[in-house]
Amino acid sequence: xSKTVKAANHGTLAILGFHKIGRARGxxxxxxxxxxxxxxxxxxxxxxxxxxxxxxxxxxxxLDAYAxxxxxxxxxxxxxxxRQFMDAALPLLQRFKYPSLQFVPTGHIGKxxxxxxxxxxxxxxxxxxxxxxxxxxxxxxxxxGVTHRRFSDLTRLQQDEELSRSKAMxxxxxxxxxxxxxxxQGDDGDDRMAxxxxxxxxxxxxxxxxxxxxxxxxxxxxxxxxxxxxxPDTNLEFELGNSHAE
Length: 246
Known about the structure:
The chain is α/β, with parallel strands linked by helices. It has one domain: TIM Barrel, CATH 3.20.20.370. The protein is built from 8 helices and 11 strands. Strands 1, 4, 5, 6, 7, 10 and 11 form a 7-stranded mixed β-sheet that branches. Strands 2-3 form a two-stranded parallel ribbon. Strand 4, helix 2 and strand 5 form a beta-alpha-beta unit. The radius of gyration is 18 Å and the shape is globular.
């Protein structure tokens, strides 16, 4: 008689997905901006509880050896590469000595978030010099595609181009390896198996969705990792308080 063997639980990974920190331009009222005071409170919650914020190197090691991660690991990620991160978010991250990731659409580097036109206020996006400075400040720059288009709106060939071209541009411009991809708008297309195959072929080790809860480890879906959507009213105690490593 065969027995079902339950996989060992190596803890919980909370991947927090932020966009913008600070005040929205032009009087916009949008959920994707978190006031600095609230952002500081969210970081304080992580600091005062048993969650340990990890850097990209620790995360990558954990993909191969989940037991090497802290029992309650948190990864701080930011989408879109809007420059106000430098003035609003980075000082608070440095106060807590927290590393983070910034996912940047390469076709908009040094330009603006025109992909948000009519939905979000216009914001300048980091230029190459600023991206290099962020790397020196403990912010790992990773891929968010080239054009910031939803994968469901692209052909397979276009998806492959978004993956390979953005990775090559960042690696050339920053002089480092790029291992992670965040799907624009959290959309990984209509065929997850085909998308995973493309990600692997392009050389990515993991990819991130947008929305969902924390991730129980080990995970068998490193190319479909959920992220906790972070806004000004996100209650981390509620979102993460019931996630206990076994």
